Amino acid sequence: MNLNNDITIAVKILCNGGLVAFPTETVYGLGADAMNKKATNRIFEIKKRPKNHPLIVHVASVDMAKKIVDDWPQLADKLANKFWPGPMTLVFKKNNLLPECVTGGQNTVAIRIPSNHTALNLLKQFAKNGSGYVAAPSANIYGLLSNTRYWDVKRSIGNYLTTSDFILEGQNCSYGVESTIIDLSSGNLRILRPGGISRNDISDFLNIKIESFDLDDSAPLVPGCSEKHYCPRTPLYVLSFLDQIKKIERFLNEYPKQGRFFYWGFRLIPLKSTQLKQVIAPSDPKEYGRNLYSKLNDLDEENYTSIFFESPPKNFEWEAVNNRLEKASS
Questions:
Q1: Strand order in the sheet with 276-280
Q2: How far is it, in rounded angstroms, from Cα 99 to Cα 109?
């Protein structure tokens, strides 16, 4: 693999209206020139994504971000200086430079600068040779598992791409869960989606307390807001330790011969069966998140009857992981 040559190819494809799947520090994205309406519409078609679900616009610099925003508050500078490049997406009131399909018909735009070396190089080269704005949701079919590895992307959407598109190979994604999305469009800071930067990280930096809340109808629609999302093909059950024991015991009785089950928890359950495989999960939330989608993708390929994950702790450090598991589970 010649990365510089691959990035040159990817930039040319973006300039010609093709799609490029590329690694970020969160998950792989499926990108198109955000200024090309036809190209961005293909993202929705390939992903089977609802047209009113906006795309995140990836850029290489703060100056580029400001050019597509109607109002850039002082708080945005503080957050950008601290967390960009990185797994934080900021939502602003938009101006009229972007096609409406990118923003899902809303008056807001979601923007971020990724820290992944491959993604950042791609964006910098595209800024020199094209528009520099890449609209990119996760590189998967809408509602199904996000992908953090090249081969998972190829398996997930490879058959939907053409010779005019490209999958840019890079290292596995280091965070493994999507970016934290923060709304700055209403005048008040709101976390619309927990992600790679925790609520505590943001609270400590700004020296404010960010309460949990239920988003009201005034909150912008953002990626990952569907009730069911990030789903494996295999039924996934996320339960407390004691509830897992009861659930798995019942399943073993219901499927005495043909069932195959997998358990991922912070301690082994006291059940022994040749039908049940048990593996200890990482106790660190960042390590857990880094492995979450790759683990579920691997388990989907192993044809288990059901997958059982022990519920992680309910605190802000685990908030992003719990959010993904809640949406992904049966």
A1: 236-239, 306-310, 261-265, 276-280
A2: 11
Q: Over 90: is that where the pLDDT of 226 sits?
A: no
Separation of first and last alpha carbons in the chain: 39
Find residue 143's DSSP bridge partners.
none
Angle made by CA atoms 184, 113, 102, in degrees to the nearest 5: 70
As a whole number of angstroms, the distance between CA 211 and CA 227 comes to 21
Residue with tokens 């090309």: 36
Domains in the chain, ordered, with CATH? 3-206 (3.90.870.10), 236-328 (3.40.50.11030)
Please report the sign of the dihedral spanned by the C-alpha atoms of residue 215, residue 216, residue 219, residue 221.
Answer: positive
Residues constituting the chain: 330
- The answer to whether the bond into 85 is cis (omega within 30° of 0) is yes
Q: What does residue 245 show for φ and ψ, rounded to 5 degrees? A: -60, -45
Q: Are 216 and 237 in contact (CB under 8 A)?
A: no
Beta bridge partners of 94: 69
Rounded to two decimals, what is the model's pTM?
0.95
Rg, C-alpha atoms of the chain = 20
pLDDT single digits (tens) 140-197: 999 999 999 999 999 999 999 999 999 999 888 999 999 999 999 987 899 999 999 9
Mean pLDDT of 216-244: 86
For residue 285, what are its two tokens? Answer: 């939330």
Would you say residue 1 has pLDDT above 80? Answer: no
